[in-house]
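ok trying again, last paste got cut off:
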Amino acid sequence: MLSAYLLAAVIGIMPPVVMKSPRVRPMSQTAREIVADAARRSPTITRLLEIIERSDTIVYIDLDFNLRSEGATTLIASNTLCRFVRVVVGQMLTPHRRIEMLGHELQHAVEIIQAPQVRDASGVRQLFSKIGWLLTDLSYESPAAIGTERQVRKELISSPLRR
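nice, full thing came through this time. structure:
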């Protein structure tokens, strides 16, 4: 049926169908399952995912065995239409801790999203020097991300789907 709509749009009978791709893009089946579980169990994570979906930013979510910290968020590229952010959570964390860190890192992604002038690593450093603090030249922290992590922890403890 969709192909009929597309054909009609091409020949001018109907307005074109605009297909919107998701802004949140888990990079593996495991990452997809973690994001789905987190969204079911945490209203805070659901809210962050909704903000991302309404933004100009595509957020890739991945897991990593060799991460030096529990999580990381990186602005990897931007152009005039879109920004690309990578959120990584430690694969070796417990299931609860992975969700907490997902919330923490998604908050960092939202902080970047809410600063449209941030288009590169220099902009990220400037942003976090204003809203948080720099840990090193390449890592930063914010009170909002720490608060989000704590809120997600509370939601997981009170969640009926507790594991």
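cool. Residues 144 and 157 are 20 Å apart (CA to CA). The longest strand covers residues 57-64.
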